[in-house]
Amino acid sequence: MLKISNAVEIADWEIEITQIRAQGPGGQNVNKVASAVHLRFDIQRSSLPPFYKERLMAFSDQRISKEGIVIIKAQSSRTLELNKEDALERLKELILEAVKIQKARRPTRPTKGSQRRRVDKKTQKGKTKALRGKVKI
């Protein structure tokens, strides 16, 4: 059972975890031990609330396929258990990131003082450039 929030949980049967061989150097056990983990989670078939499903499907992340399947590969640790925990934690973070509602940006206006300073700077720059003209003799 993966607990996302107080009201939302994902059952174990919804998450498919398979063992694979990790990439990269591994010493003597590199070709014997399958310690990496592939986690697959189908968004459409899950028991998540509809709001969560909609937000996950609309969320742009390379780990979410067009069909709505989340694939996470965890191989940072040398043990299978730690890689499983890492994959589950990353799934939880992905779901929470997709569901988080961004605060609407309220556009700000420049202050009167900043507007006045800008115009004064422009006029000063114009006067300086006017002095660069040809000298009349």
From TrEMBL:
Q: What is its EC number?
A: 3.1.1.29
Any GO BP? regulation of translation
Leading EC class: hydrolase
Q: Using the UniProt annotation, give all residue ranges assigned to the region (Disordered).
A: 104-137
Keywords attached to this entry:
Coiled coil, Cytoplasm, Hydrolase, Translation regulation
Q: Which NCBIfam families match?
A: PRK09256.1
- Specify the Prokaryotic-type class I peptide chain release factors domain's residue ranges: 21-37
Return the GO cellular component terms, semicolon-separated.
cytoplasm
InterPro entries, sorted: Pep_chain_release_fac_I (IPR000352), Pep_chain_release_fac_I_sf (IPR045853)
User: Which sequence ranges form a coiled-coil region, renumbered to this chain?
Assistant: 77-104
Q: What is its main location?
A: cytoplasm
Protein family per UniProt: Belongs to the prokaryotic/mitochondrial release factor family.
User: Subunit structure of this entry?
Assistant: Associated with 70S ribosomes and polysomes.
Question: Coiled coil: present as a keyword of the record?
Answer: yes
MF terms from GO for this chain are: peptidyl-tRNA hydrolase activity; ribosome binding; translation release factor activity
Recorded hits in Pfam families, A to Z, give: RF-1
Has the keyword Nucleotide-binding been applied to this entry? no
In which domain of life is the source organism classified? Answer: Bacteria
Reaction catalyzed:
an N-acyl-L-alpha-aminoacyl-tRNA + H2O = an N-acyl-L-amino acid + a tRNA + H(+)
Region forming the signal peptide: none
Instruction: Kindly list the places in or outside the cell where this protein is found, as annotated in its UniProt entry.
Output: Cytoplasm
> Protein name, please?
Peptidyl-tRNA hydrolase ArfB
